[in-house]
Amino acid sequence: MADEIVNETNIEPASITQTGVEQAVPEKRFRRRRRFLFYLSILGPGLIAANAGNDAGGIATYSSMGSQFGFQMLWVMVVVGIGVGVVQEMCARMGANTGKGLSDLIRENFSIRLTAFVMLAFLVANGGVIVSEFIGIAAALGIFGVPNWLGAPIAGVLVWLLIARGSYERVEKVFLVLTVAFFAYIIAAFMAKPDWGQVVGNTFVPTFQFNGAFLTTLIAAVGTTISPYMQIYVQSAVVERGVTMRGYKYQRLDVYVGSAFSIGIAYFIVVATGATIFPATGGTGRTLDSAVDAAQALTPFLGEFARYIFGLGLLGASFLAAGVLPLTTCYSVTEALGLENGVSKTFKEAPTFWGMFTGLIVIAVIIAMIPGLPVVNILVVLYLVNGLILPIILFSILKLINDKELMGKYTNSIVYNVLAYGLAGIVSFLSISYVIIQVLAIFGLQILK
Q1: Number of neighbours of residue 117 by Cβ within 10 angstroms
Q2: How many CB atoms lie within 10 A of CB 229?
C-alpha cells in the first residue's frame, strides 16, 4: 500500500523519510521549549522567599565573610543552604495541605500569649528591616548618582503601586524578574579571577576558627540566611497561589531551586570579596559595614564596572526585599488576628492589610530620608529581635508539620525529622548565642575576642 501511494505521488521513499525527520526536529524542539517554559512557570514563592533573604543586610554579611576570612567560610553556605531548603519546604507543604498561612496556624494551635509575643516582636523587627531595605535602595541609587532624598520616595511609590495596583500573579512575575539582578554577583565573582581550586576545597572541607570574629560572623550568616519572614512569606504565598497537595511536587521543586539559587548567590558574593579584599589585607581580613561599603571596596580591584555591578545587585535585592517584607508583615499580623488579607483583595475587602502595608512603606521612606542614620547599630538591634523569634518559629513549624490531625499523611518522615530537628537545634543555639553576645557587648562585656 505504501509503495502504491509513493508511485502515485511520484515521491521517492527517501524523500518521505527525510521529510519525516525534518518534521520531527521542530516537534522535538517545540516539546523541549514547552517543557522548559513549564518548569520556568513553576518558579514563584520558593524562589522569591529565599532570595529576599539576600537583602542589604545579607549582602553586607556575606561580603564581610569573604573580606575577613577569604574562602574559609564557603562550607557554611552549603550547610545553611540545606537548612533553608528544609525549612522552606515544610512551610510550603503546610500551606498546600491546610490552605492556611503560618501565623494563622500558630494562632489556632498555640496560646494567645505566644501568638501575641511572636507577632509583636515580628512587627518591630520587620518594621526596622523594611527601613534598612529602603536605605539600601537609596544607597544603591546613590552609586548611580541619584540623591538619597529622591531615591527613597521614588522607591516607595514604585513598590506601593506594584503591589497595591496589581494581582498576585503580576506581583509574583515582577518579583521573579527582580531576581535576575542577583546574577550581577556571579559576574563580579568571575571578574575577581579566584583560585577555583581553593574555592572548591574550602566548599567541601570545613575550616573553623575559635575566635570572636569568626563565631560572630558565622552566627550572623545563619541568622541572615534563615529569617522568620521567609517562612511566613512562602507559606502565605503558596496559599494565595492556590497550590494544593495534588500539584505540590512542582511547588517543592520551586522551593529547592529557589533555596539553591539564593545560596549560590551568597556563595559568589563571598568568592568575589574573598578573592580581592582579603588578599589585599595580607590575610588579616577587613570588616565591611554595608553592601555599599563592599561595592566601594571592590572598585580598586575590579574597577568602576564592578562597583556598578555590585550596586545593581544591591538595588535589585533591596527592591525585592522592600516588597516582600511589608507583605510578610501584613500577612502575619492579619492572619494572627483572623482578618482578611492578600494582594488580590481590594482595600474594601482587606482594609487592615492594605492600611498596614501603606503605613509601613510611608514610615520606612520617611526614616530612610533622614541623613546620618546609624544603620549598622539599628541592624544589630533588629537581628537581636529576629534571633529571639527564630527558635520559636522553627520549633513551632516542627510541631505543626508533625501534627497528624493537621497534616494527615503529609507529616515529616523519621529521616526528615532527624535532619530538621538537628538543623533547628543548631540554628537556635547560634541565634541565642548571638543575642547573648550582643547584649553583653552593650554592657561592655566581651566574651569572645
Answers
A1: 14
A2: 28
- pLDDT at 19 (0 to 100): 54
The architecture that CATH gives domain 52-442 is Up-down Bundle (1.20)
Amino acid at 100: K
Tell me if 427 sits within 8 A of 395, measured CB to CB. Answer: no
Residue appearing with cell numbers 518521505: 16
Q: Is 226 strand, coil or helix? A: coil
Residue 383 CA, distance from chain mean position: 16
DSSP 273-334: HHTTHHHHTTTS-----SHHHHHHHHHHHHHHHHHHHHHHHHHHHHHHHHHHHHHHHHHHHH
Task: Yes or no: say if 357 and 326 are a contact pair by the CB < 8 Å rule.
Answer: yes
Coil, helix or strand at residue 101: coil
Q: Return the domain boundaries, the chain.
A: 52-442
Q: Calculate the CA 371 to chain-centre distance.
A: 28
Q: What is the pLDDT of residues 295-353, one digit of tens each?
A: 777 777 777 777 787 788 888 888 888 888 888 889 888 888 888 888 888 889 999 99
H or E segment to which residue 210 belongs: none
Question: Does the structure show a pLDDT above 90 at 289?
Answer: no
Mean pLDDT, residues 187-196 taken together: 91
Q: Which residue has the cell 537583602?
A: 55
Q: How far apart are CA 323 and CA 159, in angstroms?
A: 6
Return the pLDDT at 283.
72
Model pLDDT, residue 18: 54
Cβ neighbors of 337 (< 8 A, separation 6 or more) are: 107, 352
Please state at what angle helix 212-225 crosses helix 248-274, rounded to 10 degrees: 150
Residue scoring higher pLDDT (305 or 361) = 361
Cα atoms found within 13 Å of the Cα of residue 144, Cβ hemisphere only: 15
Task: Indicate if the pLDDT at residue 11 is higher than 80.
Answer: no
Listed in sequence order, the residues at least 6 apart from 279 whose beta carbon sits closer than 8 Å to its beta carbon are: 70
